[in-house]
Amino acid sequence: MTTQDPKQLLKKKHELDEQKRQFTNFARSVSEHGEVEAGQEFSNDRLPDDQNRMKSVENRQD
What we know:
Residues 1-20, 27-62 are annotated as: Disordered. By secondary structure, the protein is mainly alpha-helical. 60% of the residues lie in helices and 0% in strands. The radius of gyration is 20 Å and the shape is flat.
């Protein structure tokens, strides 16, 4: 088993995160007005889930 330096692992993780961010930005720019596959839609105006909210209220009452 090899011992890995936490600083090296963190640096590698940041590099991979940056690559993912760049790819995401590229993919969004390419498909900006294109049709997305089912299940791939992202919405910023989602309404809160009332059932989960009510369950949270119910759990707090116990």
